From TrEMBL:
<keyword id="KW-0566">Pantothenate biosynthesis</keyword>
<dbReference type="InterPro" id="IPR003710">
    <property type="entry name" value="ApbA"/>
</dbReference>
<dbReference type="InterPro" id="IPR050838">
    <property type="entry name" value="Ketopantoate_reductase"/>
</dbReference>
<dbReference type="InterPro" id="IPR013328">
    <property type="entry name" value="6PGD_dom2"/>
</dbReference>
<dbReference type="Pfam" id="PF08546">
    <property type="entry name" value="ApbA_C"/>
</dbReference>
<dbReference type="Pfam" id="PF02558">
    <property type="entry name" value="ApbA"/>
</dbReference>
<keyword id="KW-0521">NADP</keyword>
<comment type="pathway">
    <text>Cofactor biosynthesis; (R)-pantothenate biosynthesis; (R)-pantoate from 3-methyl-2-oxobutanoate: step 2/2.</text>
</comment>
<dbReference type="InterPro" id="IPR013332">
    <property type="entry name" value="KPR_N"/>
</dbReference>
<feature type="domain" description="Ketopantoate reductase N-terminal">
    <location>
        <begin position="3"/>
        <end position="148"/>
    </location>
</feature>
<dbReference type="InterPro" id="IPR013752">
    <property type="entry name" value="KPA_reductase"/>
</dbReference>
<comment type="similarity">
    <text>Belongs to the ketopantoate reductase family.</text>
</comment>
<keyword id="KW-0560">Oxidoreductase</keyword>
<feature type="domain" description="Ketopantoate reductase C-terminal">
    <location>
        <begin position="176"/>
        <end position="294"/>
    </location>
</feature>
<dbReference type="GO" id="GO:0050661">
    <property type="term" value="F:NADP binding"/>
</dbReference>
<dbReference type="GO" id="GO:0015940">
    <property type="term" value="P:pantothenate biosynthetic process"/>
</dbReference>
<dbReference type="GO" id="GO:0005737">
    <property type="term" value="C:cytoplasm"/>
</dbReference>
Length: 299
């Protein structure tokens, strides 16, 4: 299958490496320098101390025409609004898009598509971009995907993904439940670790942080209307245990002076809370704290 991947960050590089083993992949990136680097010297994935080179086609995003059977969009949610006019070019081809953003705020953009089949996904792999053509696979997980809109027969396109063993995919029928589960994890772990400047494991190991963890989980799970709160609580704790030595993406974004995805995560939850007439004081506190740190970093 011909696949376009939009985005030269850690997730885009990770998907490009694994999918290119079995598919014809072209990676579209923002900077021409990165495209030239990857096309000229290849993409290098590092895992467990070993480095695996991959020959890969890479072009500037401006060259994307929607000619591939599937386009995987692996950019941050706050970049989507500027990219949507470009994606409309490929909609007429009646092919598939797979959006891999955190949170659920991006769903409002996806309603603009009328003819293409749209999938959404969540990524549970750990990855770190070390250079423009170098990604570190820090933790193996799974990519969950579900149909958001369009014809169900386009599921045939993702069936090829479901057969991969070293980079597993799972197909879900309920996209809202799938995204809410990931949002629940991100909304608790990301802001806590970013504000307290600790690793993921610390927020459940430190009894004082864990009290706040519990309070924030209760608020977020109420907003998301999680049916089995006990199961969800254990799930978030298990993610903390599995990634105990890792720093969250929001922590790293603040550390490096980058914009975070707090609007896509906590901002979305605050909008939902207002619709529910629910006072989400702790969520608002962490939202404003992260935004304050972002503003400070920009100065």
């Amino acid at each position: 299958m011909k696949i376009a991947i939009i985005g030269g960050g850690a997730i885009g590089l990770l998907f490009a490496h694994y999918l290119s083993k079995e598919h014809d992949v072209t990676l579209y990136v923002h900077k021409q320098e990165q495209a030239a680097l990857i096309s000229g010297t290849g993409l290098h994935l590092e895992k467990d101390g070993q480095t695996y080179p991959t020959a890969l086609k890479s072009r500037s995003f401006q060259e994307w025409q929607g000619e591939e059977e599937m386009t995987i969009v692996a950019v941050k949610q706050y970049h989507l609004s500027a990219l949507m006019p470009f994606f409309k070019k490929g909609e007429k081809a009646r092919h598939s898009f797979l959006f891999l953003q955190n949170g659920m705020g991006h769903l409002k953009w996806l309603h603009q598509f009328e003819e293409a089949s749209i999938y959404v996904g969540t990524v549970e792999h750990g990855s770190l971009k070390a250079a423009g053509n170098h990604v570190i696979h820090t933790g193996t997980g799974v990519t969950k995907i579900a149909l958001f809109s369009g014809r169900e027969d386009f599921k045939l396109n993702v069936n090829d993904f479901l057969k991969m063993n070293d980079f597993p995919f799972e197909y879900f029928t309920d996209y809202k439940e799938m995204l809410a589960e990931k949002l629940l994890v991100n909304a608790v772990i990301n802001p806590l670790t970013a504000i307290f400047q600790v690793k993921n494991g610390d927020i459940i190991q430190n009894p004082y942080y864990f009290k706040i963890f519990t309070m924030l989980y209760e608020e977020v799970s109420t907003i998301l209307q999680i049916r089995d709160k006990e199961k969800g609580f254990l799930h978030v704790q298990n993610i903390c245990k599995k990634t105990a030595a890792n720093y969250s993406s929001m922590y790293r974004d603040l550390e490096q002076g980058r914009r975070t995805e707090v609007d896509a995560i906590l901002g979305y939850l605050l909008d939902e809370a207002r619709d529910l007439h629910y006072e989400a004081q702790l969520t608002e506190l962490f939202y404003n704290s992260i935004k304050g740190k972002e503003t400070g970093a920009e100065k």
